[in-house]
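A student in our group prepared the protein record below, which I am reviewing. What it holds is a sequence and that sequence's fold in token form. My question to you is simply how this chain folds and whether the tokens agree. Do not assume that whoever made the record got everything right. I have pasted the whole thing underneath without changing anything:
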Amino acid sequence: MSFNILLKTSERGVFLKEFVRNASKKTGGSTQNTNCKVKPKHRGWKVQDGHFVQAGHMLATQRTTRFHPGLNVGFGVNGTLFAMEAGKVVVTCEKFDPNWDHTWVQRMYKGRYDQTIYKKYYNVIPEPQHQRFKLIDEV
């Protein structure tokens, strides 16, 4: 830190002292705590169309319902879609026919009464069972 002393004369001829303080360092941001950013949640689809999954495998994570559960797919409390059986993942885009009598549907799809509404569904097609055993007698 440095100080400069200025002497000024006033109208009456009296000397006045003024101290001027100059900064010794440039103003700059702090270099500490530079890694305090919010960590991303990595939401979205986890498995693509055509992949094989086991039972309980996460298919998609979401905050709002962007993807909908289809055949052999469960819907978690936080909107997570998961496979209920092992098999092949198939993502389909299907036509949605809402019940226009509900006030919730009227509010959500306001102005889209004449339009065709499509939604994406996750489906898990189970693997075919093996045919090694034959039925001999019925009980």
